[in-house]
Amino acid sequence: MVDVAVIGAGQTKYGNHKLGLKGMWAEAAENAYSSVDRDFEPRQIDEAFIGSVAFGGAQLGNTAALLTEHSGLDGIPVRRVENACASSGFALRDAWMAIKSGQADIVVAGGIEKMNDLSAERKRFWLGVSGDTEWERLAGLTFPGTYALMARRHFHEHDSSHDDLVHISVKNHMHGFENEHAHIRKQVSFEKAESGFMVADPLTLYDCCPTSDGASCVILAADHVARQFTEDPVWIRSSGAASDRLALHDRPSVTQLLATQKASQAAYSAAGLTANDIDLAEVHDCFTIAELMATEDLGFADHGQGGVFAREGRGVRNEGAVCINPSGGLKSKGHPLGATGTGQAVEVFKQLRGTVEDSRQVRDAETGLTHNVGGSGATCAVHIFGRERNE
Amino acid sequence: MNEHVHWKGYLAVISNDGVFIQSPYLHGDQIVYGPDSDSTTMAIAAIQLMRYKGHIIDSIHLPESVDAQIVYLASGVDTIPHNGELEFGDIIWDLLSGDEATLVIAKTNSESYDFEEPQDVEIIDADFFHDMTEAWRLEQEMHHVSQGAYVSTSQYLEGAAARLSLTSQKVGDRMIWPPRQLDENGLRFSEDSHQLVAEAHVESWTKLSAAGAPSEFSLRAPILGGIQTLLVRFEQGPRGVFLVTDDLDYSPKIGDTVHFAVRRIYAQEGMIRYGLKAFPKR
Description:
The structure holds two protein chains of two kinds. By secondary structure, chain A is an alpha/beta fold. Chain A contains 13 helices and twelve strands. Chain A folds into two domains: 140 residues, Peroxisomal Thiolase, Chain A, domain 1 (3-Layer(aba) Sandwich); 222 residues, Peroxisomal Thiolase, Chain A, domain 1 (3-Layer(aba) Sandwich). In chain A, helix 2 links the parallel strand 2 and strand 3. In chain A, helix 6 packs across helix 10. The radius of gyration of chain A is 19 Å and the shape is globular. Chain B folds into two domains: 122 residues, no CATH class; 128 residues, CATH 2.40.50.840. In chain B, strands 1-2-3-7-6 form a five-stranded antiparallel β-sheet, with helices on one face. In chain B, strands 14-13-12-15-16 form a five-stranded antiparallel β-sheet. In chain B, strands 5-4-8 form a three-stranded mixed β-sheet, with no helix packed on it.
């Protein structure tokens, strides 16, 4: 079966953008096109998948058609992919499948979100639309609240603590500090991070990712055409995805994300790899507890040992066996919902090709993983990337 | 001799064939409802108390201030507004409301009511009462367009029996709540009605700051100083998430046992969404 390579990837800076949707998408696409090593024109693209929650109701219908017409992709099949915060993780998977199936040779996967030009009231509405609204919202929950319930239960079951979450926050701010695309380029001390404003007890401001504007774009190519564009492709070694009950209370465990476990097991199995083979992982840390649980669910730490993993700094760049969130993660790099999944792929593409800022390059990076979660764990897409193709 | 009890956040006085129930809050010289109570929530509590005391109530006359549909969904007690086929004379129970936050349930043939005055009335903070009353008034206006996650009237009513009376599905030995539609064989889950016992244990909890509360609570969360949600597990297995009743100063702990009472959750498009809220077992 055909192998799939990433031949180009680009994004906007995440944060508060003056640009609107069309401008941001055009910038991300332009950066992706220009990252291709040899002559490349958007007219060579066969199909496009664009992840977006359409936050605020902005261009809720036909999002992809509007954006792609402003990035030189007139006339090709396009569609918006929506799976909450995992929208572009699934757009990436759909693009990968389009090439795998033989229906397309060159496909764009991207994502976009504009979150910061809304009133605070409107923003609070849209931040909670991807849970089980009938039951969770009527119980007063938005995602900070849902993840707070997970955190407190994890502390209770596994003897983890808020200090463990603080270590994650400090690490991700340290990683993101040198990332020119990060939303919050600011290091924070342990003391500051542990005493943040309480958002949803026990989660403070320093446990929560920011709401960001941003767009990201990845260009995939089939193996038989990839070499036309680069001698240095990054291969998508596997794609795994899964879903789970939307409401936290309907799941068998509230301290594990089964969708992450299933998606990663599928991805590891298809690539013939284990967690021990991963050099760097872009993990969905919408909240610090989400990263703690992900390190367990992805197999970097044993079940219940995510707190110890964080405490001992095992995810710190070039210190532990695996670097967790070299970009700064959602916590520091930012979280423009629909753009996050392919934004993670942009980071891994650059890390594996050695083109990130020197100061934050993960040494000897051969294999990377992206982990993109929708809602509080209802959907998850995991991709494994490598310098080498699968054997 | 009357029996005085605290019941689901209200003060009740029980006689042989009736109950007087009132809000515990005094504002000036008036008994007033608490922050998430009204005549509907207190009527449901009164019916539940009467049943707890062994009375059989299948139907009842209600005052206009009480939402007959919510009473039916929460308790199964029928009323003429809800069921036009009921004969007026066949109903043997009256629920009567006073000018203040007080209700009486008594037989329709009762000639007089003789209840002692409830004890433990407390004075409600005047500013708090005023602010909450105003917030609910604004929230209930039709032109108040909530930014809240949209749960349509039909969707709310579809799940209302499960929400208000913990109606669940039984599959083998397993209880399923909230209800589900099709199983992995593509078949409908059992529609047999089973009710969970309204007692559960706290598995986790959080308190959202006023700034972090969902927008449908945005008028009231700042007045309340945030909103508190519990993740609980019922004795029969299912889990659920519930707000804590608004008038409680309660610091939850994992393992606490909680009970439930019908309360107002929020209003949208002029309709109050009622649901169960939790309070600690005393």
